[in-house]
Amino acid sequence: MTATAPPRQAPEAGPGSSKTAAGRRLRPRAIERLRQIGLPYLLLLPALIAELLIHIVPMFFGIVISFKNLTLFFIRNWSKAPWAGFDNYRAAIKIHEPIGQALLHSFWVTLAYTVLSVALSWLLGTAAAILMQDSFRGRAIMRAIFLVPYALPAYAALITWTFMFQQDTGLVNHVLHDQLHVTSNKPFWLIGDNSFWAMVIVSVWKSWPFAFLALMAGLQNIPRELYEAAAMDGAGVWQQIRKITMPSLRPVNQVLVLVLFLWTFNDFNTPYVMFGQSAPHQADLISIHIYQSSFITWNFGSGSAMSVLLLLFLLLVTAVYLLFTSRKRGDADA
Amino acid sequence: MQPSPMAQPKSFLWTRRVVLTLLLLFVLTPVYVMLSSSLKNLQDVQGSFKWIPHGLTFRPYVDIWKTVPLAHYFVNSLIVSVSATVFSVVVAIFAAYGVSRYRFAGRKVFTVTVLSTQMFPGILFLLPLYLIFVNIGNSTGITLNGSRLGLIITYLTFSLPFSIWMLVGYFDSIPRDLDEAAKVDGCGPFGALFRVVVPAAIPGIVAVSVYAFMTAWGEVLFASVMTNSSTRTLAVGLREYATQNDVYWNQVMAASLVVSVPVVAGFLLLQRYLVAGLTAGAVK
């Protein structure tokens, strides 16, 4: 198929165009034809303009900036900033020098955070969705409650968790130390090694309801007859879950796990609200790391180079993931 | 949903009871902390945590408006989120109608491009977009950086990919014969869209609106860079309670609750539509 350029003279159709319907029938067929071709593009135009302005154009600017030495000095006149060639990239991937080393550390932290959070969120979401597939008393209200973390504005929920993780006044230490006596003293949760685990817990709390929501929708598409037939054949509930439910959810899972991975890997809100602008070393997620190297030190060139590297990594992961899971799906279908 | 066709064994029932109870505790603990702490005295939140407040007070709900110009931020958030939602939904309706009802060159490219913007890291757009807004301001005088307009335009694109995807699924499920019939009756394509397709897709449109509003209301990263003291939204403004010398946790919790209630209430009322919309989208 060849790309057809949208015709310039877009038809002046609007919500009120129906009254011209009688007149339109008299127009030559050529104009009618042009109208037919142009109409879908006209419908897409607003969305295209918005996407271009906010996503596509800035992305290309970002790639350009990553090859520049852009500091605060040039911010009002960024085209005057000197070219840096691959210097920003070289600095970012030199893992034995401070900038590259910090970036690599941040990458590993983010990867561990993402894998843990996605795995646990998926597990909780799947368990809840399957256990709530059949109706029981209180099911509707429980479903509503489970969706609360998803509905709460991220910052409000995160501030509450920050309060719960306070060393002297928080709920977590009160339960662990004062009530259960698990710890001999009250540990710090928002600095040091614990900050990583605090962040994982909060992340799972925030994202498992989305998995639950998506899987619930997926479960509604499984035909009831499949279960009835299996029950006739003597399959128990657990067997039905293994043999019918899980395989039927595979297409939903394919998209769900990918979306959760991308969201969590790019997560900025969690560390930003929990730790402020400087996250502890152990919880230095890649988004906040790039944010810091851009807006705190005002080195946009270096920050952009890191963003581009991040994008390349995510593209690679997505491509490999889709290739791998689609082939597996193909095998299963065959 | 109909009752299960077979009797459930004890092991299943007990697993369900235990797992769902633990999940309820996990989900509700922060909600309880938010609610109970917002009704505590300052001394009560400054000492060791207490499950039961010593005497209830509504003082924090009075004080939150004075400690931080919360009402101002609330209005900013409301203007930005409502405008972004309205524009986003209208733009998404047109785009989804085009994708659902017409076959044209570039249809697939459009869908894939729009959806893939969803996966790009926000931080990648933030820096260049900030510079573009600053430079547009310098050369044309249209202030986008630090203005509500800039934030509205930005937020409307955040919900757009998901909204288009979900509405395409919804529109596809509406029989084409309906809009063909409308066209025979003398409606143009836009007449068919607004008189037939949109009314039939109201649940999907409601779901998409809720999603767009929540996205805008909860966004932190762009709000932290693109607003100033007069256009600051709640996402950034709420942090000001924590930057005071003494953190008034009872007020922080009260403010968090106040900014959450409209969104959570709206979401819970309309969540059925969201599930239905997701289902329609997943069928494809």
UniProtKB/TrEMBL annotation, chain A:
Keywords: Cell membrane, Membrane, Transmembrane, Transmembrane helix, Transport. Residues 107-321 form the ABC transmembrane type-1 domain. It is found in: Cell membrane. Residues 1-24 are annotated as: Disordered. Its main location: membrane. The chain crosses the membrane at residues 41-67, 107-132, 144-164, 196-219, 248-265, 304-324. It is a multi-pass membrane protein. Belongs to the binding-protein-dependent transport system permease family. This is Sugar ABC transporter permease.
